[in-house]
Amino acid sequence: MTLSIPDTSPVTSILTEALPYIRRYHGSTLVIKYGGNAMVEEDLEIAFARDIVLLKLVGMNPVVVHGGGPQIGDLLSRLSIPTRFVDGMRVTDAATMDVVEMVLGGLVNQALVSLINKQGGRAVGVTGKDGNLIRARKLTLRRTEPGQVEPEIVDIGQVGEVAHVDTGVIEALTAANFIPVIAPIGVGEHGESYNINADLVAGRVAAALRAEKLILLTNKPGILDRNGATLPTLTANQVETLVADGTINEGMLPKTDCALEALRDGVRSVQIIDGTVAHSLLVEIFTDAGIGTKITLDH
Predict the structure, then answer these.
(1) CATH code for the domain defined by 27-296
(2) What global pTM score does this model have?
(3) CB distance 71 to 184 below 8 Å
(4) pLDDT tens-digit readout, 114-130
């Protein structure tokens, strides 16, 4: 009788390819911004949670910063609270801020924590208000219309920007082998709450932690050239050129802005990847080809 021996070469090839990256990033901090379609499709949510657990089990320190714009919009609609955007930012009055805190600090944060824990992780959810993790100030929005000499200052309510990140809470959780899951709500000088863009929070958290990588999950395959092809690697100077000539525009601009700021503040590299691809985190970190667009200060 002839024994049939299964072909294990594809599996061993994958594991062998992953080993150098496990060694390289062991003990490193990876800040991952999670949002968009990956948060509303169950299969992708589970895949993301498993990826985070695996990163922790092989010795890395993942820190998750999440968004929740669609969920906020849905609850505002159900509560008949009108929503208005100015330059892509949600005008956040007191009633809207209450909903933002309820959704980001409660529903979304705890759902993500629960999902990671169900997959075998040990996640703990916090907002930027916990332990004064994210000190914030009111965002000043200036708009200049044609013919105006001086820019108009537009009040968009309790929308903030990061003034300071106190990493003590994150470091304490990481040292105790927990996975921090951060909602992008900041606290002002007088204890007031601020709604902050999750990409910007992720970038500032990554910089404060001197993270090895900042990974931004999007619904795009990365930064695209004018022909729609993904650009696998870019330097900061190349990104600035693509912004100036209009190749990088609209929704990708806040992501590249936070990427460049993080790099200049000490983060080693920023990866913009497609969160609608299951296990895109693992492909990015553990394979030679990677996925999406990697941005560094220089080559």
Answers:
(1) 3.40.1160.10
(2) 0.91
(3) no
(4) 999 999 999 999 999 99
